[in-house]
Amino acid sequence: MTHVVAEPCVMCKYTECVAVCPVDCFYEGENTLVIHTEECIDCGACVPVCPTTAIFSEDDLPEKWSHYLQLAERVQDDWPNITEKKDALPDADEWAKVEDKKEKLSEAPFSE
User: Fold this and answer.
1) Are 87 and 34 in contact (CB under 8 A)?
2) Around 20, how many Cα atoms within 13 Å sit in the side-chain half-sphere?
3) Where are the chain's structural domains?
């Protein structure tokens, strides 16, 4: 079982979840995060600290966001691992209020 980062993370990329992950299974894209499906130990530590309620157990992932599991599987080996909290994206607080952000999702990895 794994946890999945869904659409509320897009354009926000808060990283409180990264700071509490005991196995460092978060990977960073240009404007979102994913959880590596084979590294996640299903501890759930990340769920309550997510400011946008973007993280779900695979079994509880809303159907409208089911494609975020496939996104993680597609990019998890290409995106860089993130192991420490960092600043959220600019305007994250404003984007956190936006409901439909799928057109903003980038599959590009984060690059400094």
Assistant:
1) no
2) 13
3) 3-82
* pTM, rounded to two decimals: 0.96
CB 34 within 8 A of CB 79: yes
112 pLDDT above the threshold of 80: no
Taking only the tens place, the pLDDT of each residue in 47-78 is: 999 999 999 999 999 999 999 999 999 999 99
Residue 44 half-sphere exposure toward CB, CA atoms < 13 A: 6
CA dist 6 and 102 (Å) reads 10
What CATH number should be reported for the domain whose range is 3-82? Answer: 3.30.70.20
Place of tokens 């299903």: 42
What does 9-38 look like in DSSP terms, one character per residue? GTTT---HHHHH-TT--EEEBSS-EEE-TT
